[in-house]
Predict the 3D structure of the following.
Amino acid sequence: MENQEPTKKINSTSEETKANLDSLNKAEVVPPVMNDSNLIDKPDKSTDEKAVSPPSPKKPIKPPKLEDKPFDDFISNHFIPGLKTSIEKKGILVKDIKLVEGKRPVVGGNCWMVYCEISEQRRFWLCFNKELITSDKTILLAESNSDPSIVESFLIDEKKTTLPLLISRVLQRLNGQKWVGTN
C-alpha cells in the first residue's frame, strides 16, 4: 500500500503542473526590460529617418528646348545671334540682321522674315509663313542692291527643325552661292 501513496502525490503534482501551465498560457507576455543605458537612451532610428528624409522626386523637370520657346524669343535671342556669329567666323562682315514682319519680296504675302545684309551688297531673307519655326520656309537671295533673283523652298524635307540645323543650312545655302567659305 505504500506504493499507492506516492502515486497520489505524483497525480497531485501533475494537477499542480497543469494548473501552472494553464496560468502561464493565460498570462500576458511582457517584454524584458533592458538595463543597458546606451540602448535605452538611443531613439529608434527607423522612425527618425522616415520623418527627416525628404520625399524623393519622381523625375527632374527638364527645361524647355530652345525650339519650344516662342517664335520671337527663339529667333531674336538664339537664331539671329548664332547665325551672325557663324557668318562672321567665315570671315564675312554682317552689316545688318534682324527679324521683321512684312510683305515677302517677289512672291508677296505677309510673313515673318530674318533679313540679313552681308558684305559686297549681298542680302538674303529667310521667310517663315507662320509665326512658327516649323512652318513652311523660303529663302530669297539678292546681289548688288537688286531685287532677289533666287527664291527657293527651305528645309522642306526635315521632320524636326532645330537651331543648329537652321544655322547650318543657311550657311550651306550661302556657301552654294559662293558668298561664304572657300570653294
Q: What stands out?
A: The chain has five helices and five strands. Residues 103 and 109 are 5 Å apart (CA to CA). The two ends are 133 Å apart (CA to CA).
